[in-house]
Specification:
With about 375 residues, the protein is an alpha/beta fold. The protein is built from 13 helices and 15 strands. The strands form three sheets. The protein has a seven-stranded mixed sheet, with helices on both faces. Helix 3 runs antiparallel to helix 10, helix 4 packs parallel to helix 10 and helix 12 crosses helix 13.
């Protein structure tokens, strides 16, 4: 008799997550659990499934590459890798790319690159910001509950209130290697900064020689209606980190840096990063996003009108609604009615649906969430 996977999970898997359902299939913006129940997925793997679940063009790209070569390591030229680097350089307007397996690894790479090229050791970041759970990325992540149990961390970082340029100017000096900033804070609950904030960060970095490192792990790849959220501001960072929506669910991350910022031989490396399958999936994903990106502002406005009575924070298909202590209850009510959403930081309901979500699905989500909010 085959044991239920929930029993096996409880017995053999470290209990680092809270899980209540098992998803077994997905198509477009919809998923099905192991009991056959259907949901509209506005979590999308936490902003990962940018082209929806199992988009045919992404699936075909992965299968076609898997039939040719699955892995060869970075000791050799890797199929699809240079082509993907070229695309990301073009989309960001920067100069060189380096691949990783996740957003946390991309941010680790940014820490290393900033240190080795500036010769400085310190960093600055913002309260409620999230940049990953590895020891390096955790050092620039503010949330005390996930950071403090692992201190002391080896990367010194000053934390400043998000949006506070005066505080940042005090914290950054000529010993600061870089400033980590999210153009919109995702894990905090879709917190949009004041107008002019990123421009102010850019000016402070220019004044001190610190590098401006923009974490687009959650906001990138069309999520906000442009390829990257920093492109709404007219500001150009020194380094951009990318992951989540880059390959529609296949694990990959990247950092892209301006001219003059690059790793030299032996300064960084990875066995799996930028492998043939991941890069094939990412190239196919970019192709699909190119098709749907022009329609994101219209879909965003449809959500804005539907949630207008709840004072939503919306940029593209990144949506936050402050709920407070009722957030878990609202999340469960939505699940019961066939819509998956999740609670981010500080009682904020977060919706990050696939970019391919249809108007009909948007209307259903609005109806269900509004009813749950009551």
């Amino acid at each position: 008799m085959v044991q239920d996977s929930r029993v096996l999970d409880a017995r053999y898997y470290m209990p680092a997550f809270s899980r209540r359902m098992k998803l077994v299939r997905g198509a477009g913006s919809r998923v099905w659990d192991d009991r056959g129940r259907e949901y509209i997925d506005c979590v999308a793997g936490i902003a990962v499934c940018s082209t929806g679940h199992c988009h045919p063009k992404v699936v075909e790209a992965i299968c076609e590459q898997a039939r040719r070569l699955i892995h060869c390591s970075n000791l050799y030229y890797v199929p699809n890798q240079a082509e993907l680097a070229e695309r990301l350089v073009g989309l960001t307007g920067l100069a060189k790319a380096f691949f990783s397996n996740s957003g946390a690894e991309a941010n680790e790479g940014a820490i290393k690159l900033a240190r080795v090229r500036t010769g400085r050791k310190k960093f600055a970041a913002f309260t409620h910001g999230f940049h990953g759970r590895t020891c390096g990325s955790l050092a620039v992540t503010h949330k005390p509950a996930i950071r403090e149990p692992f201190e002391p961390l080896s990367v010194p970082c000053a934390f400043v209130d998000y949006g506070d340029l005066d505080g940042l100017a005090e914290a950054v000096d000529r010993d600061t290697a870089g400033v980590f900033v999210e153009p919109i804070q995702g894990e905090a609950g879709v917190i949009i900064p004041p107008d002019g904030f990123l421009r102010g960060v850019r000016e402070i970095c220019d004044d001190t020689g610190a590098l401006m490192i923009v974490d687009e792990v959650q906001t990138g790849m069309g999520r906000t209606g442009k390829w990257f959220a920093f492109q709404h501001t007219g500001v150009t960072p020194d380094i951009v980190t990318i992951a989540k929506g880059l390959a529609s669910g296949f694990p990959i991350g990247a950092l892209v840096a301006r001219e003059g910022l690059e790793f030299q031989k032996g300064e960084h490396g990875s066995t799996f990063a930028g492998g043939p399958l991941a890069c094939a999936a990412a190239l196919a994903t970019i192709g699909v996003i190119e098709e749907v990106l022009p329609d994101i502002p219209r879909k965003s406005e449809r959500f804005r009108r539907g949630f207008a009575t709840h004072d939503p924070r919306i940029r593209g298909l990144m949506i936050g609604i402050t709920v407070g202590e009722r957030c878990a209850e609202v999340q469960q009510r939505c699940t019961d009615e066939g819509v998956l959403v999740n609670c981010a930081g500080d009682g904020n309901l977060r919706l990050v649906p696939p970019l391919v979500i249809t108007d009909g699905e948007i209307d259903t989500v609005i109806e269900v969430v509004n009813a749950a909010l009551g």
